[in-house]
Amino acid sequence: MNRLSSTKNTPIDCFVAGAAWLGGQKMLKSLKTTRLDRVESAYLAILRVAVLAVATLCLLAAIGFAADGLWRIAVSTDVEEEKTAVSPADVVSAMKTPTPPRQASGQSEISSGVRQRHATFQANVFRPYYAAYKRASDAYKKDEDKTLTEAELLSALGYDLGAYAAGSSLATKRFVENPEYQQQAQAAVAAAMSDPGTVRLLAEYKAAEKTAQSCSTVTEQRRGWDSSSTACSDWFYTPYGCEVTRNVPVERCVPAYPDGIVSPFVAFGRADGTFRTLWAARAESNASDAYRTLTERENTRAAIGPRLLIALQIIGGFLAVMFFFLIIAVERHLRRLAQSPSLVTDVEPRV
Fold it and tell me: Whole-model pTM?
């Protein structure tokens, strides 16, 4: 029987097998190194993109906070209170109820400066004001009515020297010292007195008769005999008792005009009171709005420092992120040089 071949390996076969094994190990190592480099390169690329994104967000946030801080610096805290204005139409439409009578104040120890201001007001401001009342009174008063003098109307409305010197009425102080209030009051009250509705009421007053009664209860002292009283020395003699004085309620009625009849003085006082009420309400509203606006602007400016500090902190973070980005870029460059030695060449100086 013939043998096909011998199973014994020759030295040459062992050498070839060893070389093949060494080549496979080298190829496997090279393949692993290549895969690791690719993973590292991908990781560094992702890290670079993430760092750039964070740096961009930091830069945008810094710009935003810096712009916000600069805008707050430009916010002004000078808030002008809106001018109070009451038009004649406002007074005419708001005249619903008459103004209660006002009490005059005392005039003790009033300084010369206060007297001078009030005298100027009375001559330059209240005199034309009084003229509107006098025209209505002269046109629509009854024969038994009396037209108040300028001083009497001044005191009746609460604008006299004593009321102004006392300082208890803000409306009086406005009327004496505020030119805008004076001008608007004169125009509004004059328009209210010439309004068709007011003229109709005054005409009704002039033609009206006292067909109604106005009753009130008063207390009167009356003397009478009290059989149970022991206030006198001879109370025990017949007839028993004493003569005493008692307070007795008595109802008194006088002729009066029907409801809705308004005299010139009442109509003028109503117009004056309506104007001062509207002015006070709008002045308070304007002052409140101005204070609220001032508070909002002050709060806005108060945030300047914190906003700029945040902007500086974000800029610092941006610089730190960019520093790490630079380190990553250097690392990537060094790895490329290590993977491609052909990029590094030694250039010998020429002689």
Answer: 0.54
Terminal Cα distance for the chain, rounded: 79
DSSP-derived letter for residue 1 is: -
What is the amino acid identity at position 148? L
* Ramachandran angles phi, psi of 90, nearest 5°: -65, -45
The whole-angstrom separation of Cα 85 and Cα 94 is 14
Q: What is the mean pLDDT of each run of 10 residues along the chain (351 residues)?
A: 48 59 58 65 74 80 81 76 79 65 54 91 93 92 89 93 89 92 93 91 84 79 86 85 87 75 90 93 91 89 85 85 81 74 52 43
Contact 327, 48 (CB under 8 A): no
Q: Is the dihedral of CA 56, 62, 68, 70 positive or negative?
A: negative
Report how far Cα 54 is from the mean position of its chain's Cα atoms: 41
Q: Comparing C-alpha atoms, which of 336, 316, 324 is closest to residue 52?
A: 324
Beta bridge partners of 219: 249
What would the two tokens of residue 232 be? 């006198």
Phi, psi for 252 (deg, rounded to 5): -120, 135
For 219, phi then psi, to 5°, come to -110, 130
